[in-house]
Amino acid sequence: MTECTVFVCKDPNNPVAAAKFGLDEDGQGHFVYGARFTSSTDDAFSFDPINLPLTTQRLMVPVHRDGSFGVLSDAGPNTWGQRLTISICKQAKKPVPITPVDWVLSSFHYGAGCFAFSRSPNEAPSPTIIPVSLDELDARFIKAIDNLDKEIDPYILRLVLPGASLGGVRPKTVVMHDGYEHIAKFNKQDDLFDVSTVEYASMRLAYLAKIEVPDFEQLVIAGRPALLVKRFDRTDNGHRIHYISAHSLLNIGALSNDQREYQTNFSYAGIAEITRPFNPFAVADSHELFRRMVFNILIGNVDDHLRNHGFLMAENNQYRLSPAFDLLPHIGASYMPQSIGVGAFGAASTMMNALSQCRRFFLEDKTAKEIISEVKEAVSNWRQIFRESGVSENDIHLLASCFTAADAAETASNISRGS
């Protein structure tokens, strides 16, 4: 059995040994909460109220289609973090992580939520790298993230290492800014457009569409555009908030041949419904999810997969929908469906489909149509917002096909005003 201890680090200076996670010889995940943790009335909570209920019994950890282990993998690296970790291991001539346990043990404890990992309950994890100030990111940092196959000197290594805990495909790291942890996201060299600036503009559109987003800023570091996002899984005093992705909660297995799951639980409505037993704000969060679904359709964000939606634990072990993130139009959106279900017609990216199951979001047709109108009005000004945000005319032209529905809304508005 390959195993590790899971620590809850709500207060990073006082980690609490809470559970053991291990893999047997067949690669099956096993999990058990610690007796001291479960008996604590102040600290105990279920890591995943659906798949890992709070109990003293040993549990099987659900293995997802992508080989991840639910909420435990939420706290570990994927794509970018794994690339960076592999590079660091090779340079240090250390073994590259192989199993999910290896991966979480190799992280630098800056992943999503409040978990950290150690080989033993007697070895409390502590961040070996402290996030630097935003001001310390410079041209050498940019060169390092562009050339992960090259040796990184120790000074620059401490700038990039916190990013090894993170997921997503974009180069990123964790920095301190105005006393808070932020994630700094950068363009890749092979990007087809200025992704950081376009994401900044898309976040502005989302805010105008009355969608909850974290604080964000636009930056240029050594000539490279960047997006700075304040972490929403951190408190004002630096404590950490438990986070779980919709991907982990829903635990979707293999899809049926007819992909009926896109009409049921593998969908926005499925996300809205899964937390209702432990979400006192289920109605408001369902309305917010409907608004985000409409927004993603209108901007051509077809990368709206389940990992790009999540929940934060609130008081009394209840959950709230997290602020929106990774909002970005995608080239090819005009002929692609959404990544998850929208309504009765599966993942089809249409307003008719969005309305088809609006009651699953606690919405009557009239209110759902009002939300659609509000989002359309905000997104119809996308060209102006993108220009104000610094998006180039070439990129606006390149992305125009993503906003077909939004442009149609603007045309209809102009006609109604007689312009």
Automatic annotation (TrEMBL):
One matching Pfam family: HipA_C
Domain HipA-like C-terminal per the UniProt entry, residue ranges: 165-382
Keywords noted in UniProt: Kinase, Transferase
Superkingdom field: Bacteria
Family: Belongs to the HipA Ser/Thr kinase family.
Protein's name according to its UniProt entry: HipA domain-containing protein
Source organism of this protein record: Undibacterium umbellatum
